[in-house]
């Protein structure tokens, strides 16, 4: 039973491209494949400069358990392998492939043999699939659970609560069968009894689609969720579907839940069915600066400028370009940045929307408190941060913050609350690390004293 | 490390960008329309019916007193910020709101220099000396009114109608300190009774309150808890709750002053506690105190408790261990 409704913000939907069937764009002249498009260790290139690659060919293998392999979405020649400055601010080794336009499929592409759990997990790992909702966490790692009985429910995330983005919507309309096949795979290999597809109620067609597929006793239920941001946040979705709160420092699996994005699931099903790994992506291209907003299928690694060009270029000069939605998306410094595995949208905005609002004094209206889905108190966190009071930050549970941005969205004084929370987390971590180190030092000293007294 | 990151962000905001360079900032990249000035404008709009009512009831001087208060509130904020070299904040309209609220808490016959003095006290002493908007712990208009009540006791308690008829307020009549008859309930509702110039028309204040609720500028918690407590207590004590409700500054206090952001709790439960506290103190003063009215004192006293109420009613975060 749900005791209370979580707070959130009524952000505009702007799902302008929901009716736009994804169009495949022409092959770009080159693609850049950064070795870090996921959380975890960077992938290791298995190609050399000058090598010929084909569509679906392995370019880099996983660099560890928490990592993911990378495949080429084009045929062509490896031009260079050099560091590239990413939007995250880090330099990442990047494989640049010059395309030849032939788009020949790699001979090795064949459906993997999957008969048991281990083979299923291996296939998920080899598919190169990571959390496509935006997190980029390697899916195989997420699905590797110590004990299958821990999984009480799998929640398929079709909420897509960010404004503008409709790529998941398109997956649920155009590739509903693949999503369903993915569900069947999870049922079969992870022995999941209960599967919930959570979709915001502003996507009635998707809800209707899946409701039709459900048969009595199939263990799958479709849950229409109110379209209140951040409905698709992992912990929010878990709370709103199975009514459980994920405790601080714990994972969804600790409350019996596995959340998987619908497009991620479709990508896994596609690989197991056809052997085609994740090398291309449907992204929503939208924003006030884009001439013809639409959904585009592009090879991963395509420079953003080519993606925008395919959408007719710009109406006005882009002043801010984002990976992902406007609530949590990452601002991109230049248009040569590549499309990443976990990019579900690229948005471009003109001067008017890009201009940063002027920050004014906090008026203590409490809107940030009233809109936080996790009942945090951003106003108090900000005060504690400015006072450099790390102990207070711990008490205020700043680490629970998922940076959804509701607080900053509703703040009438335009305070950079998300930025403060990010920095506050870093401050708290340093404080805790320092405390730990001091404690260990003290312990070592005491022991040394004991030794000496002997 | 953390400080440099913040100042970096500040630089992006202020420094001129070269052509072709894009703005990189932390999410979220969109923002709802509400701003401090839009919220204050909403409060001014919500106060407009009461201003109209005051002119109808007390004559054009009501407008004059209000104008003087607003002019001196805004003017003293501008001058103060000039002197201490802070950027001017008069554009956020909060000083104007303070001016109107103070005027609404004064008798229409108040000497204008006293109204001006009160406005300066509200802005400079109660608000700016504590750090300006958002930093003051006490409601400027209420605190200034209390200071004026002590400083100018006679003029602050002389209630005159436009036809120069002096009258007692319903609360004084209720207390049995005078032999005058109580006004009819209709007159009470419309505002034709003795009292401060903006507090008398229940109708106008309720219209303003509904507007603020509809615009989500205030939440229902404090007004309902405040008014509900007064009604319940006076009902139990047999003190004519229907008159208590529309007397004194209860409605203007509960709707406009006890909902002030900086000086009231920021949690819903805290707001309810704040309202109940205000209601209890108000009834206590009205029934047993020496003053006929207790709304101002109740709000000021609860203002002092606000930080503690906010802290004690902070909700347990979802997934946070029970404290």
Task: Give an overview of the whole structure.
- The complex is a heterodimer of chains A (454) and B (323).
- Chain A is of the alpha/beta class.
- In chain A, strands 1-14-13-17-15-16 form a 6-stranded mixed beta sheet. In chain A, strands 2-8-7-4 form a 4-stranded antiparallel beta sheet, with no helix packed on it. Chain A has a 4-stranded parallel beta sheet with strand order 11-10-9-12, with helices on both faces.
- Chain A has helices at 117-126, 139-143, 167-174, 176-189, 204-213, 234-242, 262-274, 304-310, 351-354, 367-371, 378-386, 390-395, 406-410, 417-453, and strands spanning 23-24, 30-34, 44-45, 52-53, 58-61, 70-71, 76-85, 91-99, 153-158, 195-200, 220-225, 257-261, 280-286, 294-299, 320-323, 330-332, 345-349.
- Chain A is built from 14 helices and 17 strands.
- Chain B has helices at residues 2-14, 36-58, 61-83, 94-104, 112-127, 140-151, 153-156, 170-174, 185-190, 202-214, 221-236, 241-246, 250-257, 268-288, 295-312, and strands spanning 159-160, 166-167.
- Chains A and B meet through strand 15, strand 16, helix 10, helix 11 and helix 13 of A and helix 1 and helix 2 of B.
CATH class of the largest domain in chain A: Alpha Beta
Largest sheet of chain A: 6 strands, mixed
- The sequence of SSEs of chain B as H and E is HHHHHHHEEHHHHHHHH
The dominant shape of chain B is: globular
Whole-angstrom Rg of chain B: 22 Å
Give the rounded overall mean pLDDT of chain A. 94
What is the count of structural domains of chain B? 1
Oligomeric organization of the protein chains? heterodimer
Q: Count up the helices of chain A.
A: 14
Classification by helices and strands of chain A: alpha/beta
- CATH topology group of chain B: Ammonium transporter fold
Strand content of chain B: under 5%
Kindly name the structural category of chain B: mainly alpha
Corresponding CATH superfamily of the largest domain in chain A: NADH-ubiquinone oxidoreductase 51kDa subunit
